[in-house]
Amino acid sequence: MERVWLNLGTEVTVRALERGDLPWTLHPACEYGSDPGQWGASLINNAEVMTACLDVAGSGSVVEVGAYAGDLTRFLLGWAQSSHARVWAIDPSPQKELVALAEQHSELELVQETSHEALAHMPSAEAYVIDGDHNYYTVSEELRLIVAAAGEQPLPLLMFHDVGWPHGRRDDYFAPKLVPEEYRQPTVEGGGLFPGVSAPQSGGLPYKWPAAKEGGPRNGVLTAVEDFLSGQDDLRLAILPSFFGLGIVWHKDASYAEKMAQLLDPLDRHPIIERLEANRAFHLAAVHQQMMEVTAALDRLRRQEELLRRMLRSSAFRIADRLSRLRQRAGIAPADVAVSRAEIMRALEDKPRRNQNSSAG
Known about the structure:
Layout lengths: L9 H10 L27 H11 L3 E5 L5 H13 L2 E5 L5 H9 L3 E4 L3 H7 L5 E4 L5 H15 L6 E5 L30 E2 L11 E2 L14 H9 L5 E6 L5 E6 L5 H8 L6 H43 L1 H15 L11 H20 L1
Helix pairs in contact: 2-8, 5-6, 6-7, 9-11
């Protein structure tokens, strides 16, 4: 396999993945186009644990909040066929793949509204997957609406994505104006996030509207879940740390509670999985920062090469080159001061020579 450059564009990367030139390290059901950088951002990467939870709970209906392109939705439909369950997908701006999926499957209902609009009128389901806008207010309001829809019925099985870094303790907003000002954290547009660094910085993993700092009250998905659970001792939270964190909440008095605990206790905040995820997130952010530096360096090199080639075409520089050589011969100018056309041409040839040498091996 040839060396892969860090600054491959999205289209080039997807084509390389399809050809098998790059290894695919994510879930087989995760589409290349959904995650060409292989961040592992899709909840599909924790799907086997999720469907195991749905099986244990005996869920006959599941609502997915934030379905995007439908990678997880497609997986849930496969599960639903054998379980005779029904699936709802909520997304105000679904990708064309999700729209096509809904047209092909009558057992899937696509609701093209915000989560708050949709949950306000939808009937209660037996399980919910919460993976929409990753901020305290949105998740808290989604939980309020789910509880209201359930009424006197037991709380449904709840599964939350992004309870780990970076959104566990830091809000991010798709559209800040949709969040009431009193619930909205100060933000940094296009802020880059790096593990262990509170303030967004250039070169970190880019997000649209991340909070300007990590931690503190009413900040982040996990904070919203914990505040919801506060004072409700009859509810249990387990966290699978992998792929930005999956949180599962169920009622301790549910008929399936003991089996759910048996399934999730070995995974709940397991220290080895936590270390693996922390290591993955660190290297993901580090590689992205390197990619930004490489891209900036290549852009700078391109501009420098362009300037040098313009100098070579310049008649004024040709005259200056001749005068410089005459001054050197006359002993007027030191040899290490003058820059000749030959030196510039050799410098411009350095890069192609290196590429030819590396490919020859």
